[in-house]
Each structure stands twice: as C-alpha cells, then as structure tokens.
Recover the amino acids of this structure.
C-alpha cells in the first residue's frame, strides 16, 4: 500500500512538472496613437507624427519567455521632399514573425528587422505593376522600398505575464534605407510610448477602416451613386468574418463622403479613374470610390484596387455590380463556380466583388501567388479572378486569413466565431 501511494505521489509530481513545462501562449497588442518620428530626406531631418499598431506573441515555457514581434504597422501623413511631398507614408513587416531577444535583467527586448516602406510619391512617379496571373487585371501593385534597422522595447516595471490587464512600454525604432526605388526617405527614427493589452491564446480583432466615396450632392440626393455599396460591403463583412477561428479581421465603415462632380458618374477611361482617386485622401482608411458605371469595366472585372497592401490602398468600383442586365460576356477563364453564360448575363452577378478587392487591399494576390510583393492566396477562394458576369467565389481560406496585411490594421475587441471554408 505504501509503495502504491509513493508511486502515485511521484507520478502526480512528475505530471505537474510536465504540465508546467507545456508552452503557454499570450498576446500583447497595442495601438500607437501618436509617435514622434524624425524622417531624414533630401531636405534634412523633419519631425512628423506616426500612428499604427504593434503585436507581440509571448510564449511561457516553465520560467522561460520567448517573444515574437508579429505586427508592426506605422503610418504618417508624409513629409516634404526635395521635389514633392512624399504623400501618405507607411511601414509594415514583410509577413514573417521576428524574434525579440529578451533580457529580463534590463526589462528590454530588441531585434534587427526589415520593414516595407511605401509612400504615394512612388506611385505618382513610377506608376503600378499590374499583377494578374490570369483573367481580369484588377490589382495594381505599388513599387516599394525596404528599410533595415533595430527595434527596442522596454517594458516599464518589467514583464509580468498575465491573462488580462495592461502593460506599458517605451519603444524605439531606428531604420536606414536598404533597398530604394526613389530613395527620397533615407532614415526614420521613432520613439513610442505604448499601452499594451494582455490576452490569452488568441490576439484580439484587427480592424480595417473603410471610407466610401459616392458621386452626388449628399445623402438626400436620390441620384447619388453608391446604391450597390451596402450590399457589397455586407457580403465582404460576411466573407472576412469567416477568418474568426484563425484570425479575427473586421471592417469599420465611415459615413460616406460625397463628391458633387457629375463628370465622375461615368468613367470613360482608366485615366479618369486615376483622377477620381486623387480627389479624396483619408489617412487612416481604405477609400472605396463608387461610380455609376465604367466603360472599361469588363477588363477590370467591375473594379480594381490600387496601391494594394499599403496605407494608400484605394478601390474604384461601380453600381453595375448589381445591375440588370450585366454588360460583359462571361469570360473564358472563369473558375468552375461561374454560372453558365446565358443566366449570368442577367441578375445580380457580383455580390463578392468588393470582398475580393478588399482582399487586394489586405495585400493578397490572385492565387496561387505571391505576385509582385503581394502575399499568396488560395486556389478556389474569393481571391480567384473572375469577371464582370462571373462572381468571385463565395469561399474564404485559412491561408488568406493568415496572410492578410495592411499598415492601417489596428487592434480592438470583437467576437469572432467564423470558420474558413477552406482549411489550408
């Protein structure tokens, strides 16, 4: 009997040790409200505020802590440069986690890292890379630069792991240009004080703000464009809510802005679409411009995303998504989900078009990708190219959810329960 009790006690003690040694995962997430930045250009050093978001995965194994920088998004309205202003400027990680080397004695964690730099002046002077592996050419990929440097974070009062609550930290980022397109921005230094929130197992929701822009005099204008937007946005919310079990991605929609410029109701050329995009610039949102129709809509599948995967991302689309009849023939490259051609030329045909374009804004290429700097997506998912008379598939994938990125994503709380249709 004594032997049995002794063995049981030893087994229980061994089991407790094994249980304690199991990795426990936590997340630190914080929004950067306003960071002091010093940007070096050909006009010298200039002080400019940045906003953004930081995410850190904390793994506790026994008494050992491992820290991974999962998200670092920073956005500025830009600075004057030698020839012209940079326009909206953003920094974002390249999609991989970065290990932070933790020193418990100093309370500091640091790492060398590489970030993607984009500013609107690059688009203005270099244009875009069309990235369509097949079918519609609806995604215009920007040229980007890279910066390398050091990230240091000091947790005030030490790093006490907890399931909920807050932790304050001071962060420093010092970056030098390492890969240039224009080479306007030479160096960026930032100092940030961030209040992080603790969560266990899963990071909280990441939100992308959407700014609809309609053509008309205001919300009381019966002829204003934007009639298709609310239905398209509802479908986009539904599709991206299915990421919930993998990663929580949400949208918040601003009240529409109205442009009282009737010439934009019908876009005859792609050049007019470019002019329209320059009419509205909202620093913290992806603008979605909705016109009545576009004469070149068939080649774009009804709309397109510009500056994909950056803070400058903008979508141009039209109310014809839900018009009867649809104006384009069913394209030969349509995926198997495309309806037969005769029925697809009448009826509401493009319910998931905006969900697809917002996927480009979230840095996703047409599958399989990656393409031109955009991340890989899943064959058969909503990121498949389609056509104006052939809706993008009503299917979300785990890969799309994991690979989605944009410097405008910020942290907030939400309930996320959805499951991707494709568990890749």
């Amino acid at each position: 009997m004594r032997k049995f009790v002794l063995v049981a006690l030893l087994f229980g003690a061994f089991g407790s040790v094994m249980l304690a040694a199991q990795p426990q995962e936590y997340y630190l997430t914080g929004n950067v409200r306003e960071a002091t930045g010093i940007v070096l250009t050909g006009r010298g050093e200039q002080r400019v505020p940045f906003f953004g978001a930081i995410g850190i995965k904390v793994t506790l194994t026994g008494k050992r802590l491992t820290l991974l920088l999962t998200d670092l998004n920073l956005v500025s309205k830009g600075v004057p440069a030698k020839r012209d202003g940079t326009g909206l400027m953003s920094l974002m990680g390249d999609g991989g986690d970065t290990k932070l080397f933790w020193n418990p004695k100093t309370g500091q964690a640091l790492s060398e890292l590489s970030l993607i730099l984009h500013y609107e002046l690059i688009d203005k002077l270099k244009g875009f890379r069309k990235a369509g592996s097949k079918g519609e050419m609806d995604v215009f990929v920007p040229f980007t630069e890279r910066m390398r440097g050091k990230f240091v974070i000091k947790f005030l009062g030490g790093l006490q792991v907890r399931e909920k609550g807050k932790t304050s930290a001071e962060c420093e980022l010092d970056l030098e240009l390492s890969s240039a397109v224009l080479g306007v921005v030479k160096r960026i230094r930032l100092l940030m004080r961030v209040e992080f929130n603790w969560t266990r197992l899963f990071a909280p929701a990441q939100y992308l703000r959407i700014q609809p822009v309609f053509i008309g005099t205001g919300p009381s204008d019966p002829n204003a464009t934007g009639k298709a937007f609310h239905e398209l946005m509802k479908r986009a919310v539904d599709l991206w809510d299915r990421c919930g079990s993998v990663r929580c991605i949400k949208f918040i929609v601003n009240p529409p802005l109205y442009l009282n410029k009737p010439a934009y109701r019908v876009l005859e050329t792609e050049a007019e679409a470019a002019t329209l995009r320059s009419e509205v610039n909202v620093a913290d949102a992806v603008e979605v411009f909705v016109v009545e129709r576009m004469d070149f809509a068939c080649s774009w599948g009804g709309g397109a995303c510009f500056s994909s995967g950056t803070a400058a991302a903008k979508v141009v689309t039209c109310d014809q998504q839900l018009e009867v009849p649809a104006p384009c023939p069913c394209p030969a490259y349509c995926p198997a989900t495309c309806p037969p051609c005769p029925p697809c030329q009448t009826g509401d045909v493009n319910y998931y078009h905006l969900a697809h374009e917002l996927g480009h804004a979230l840095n996703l290429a047409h599958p399989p990708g990656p393409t031109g700097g955009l991340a890989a997506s899943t064959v058969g998912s909503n990121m498949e190219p389609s056509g104006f008379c052939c809706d993008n598939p009503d299917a979300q994938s785990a890969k799309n959810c994991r690979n989605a990125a944009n410097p405008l994503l910020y942290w907030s709380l939400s309930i996320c329960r959805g499951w991707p249709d494709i568990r890749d």
Observations:
- Residues 2-20 form the longest helix (19 residues).
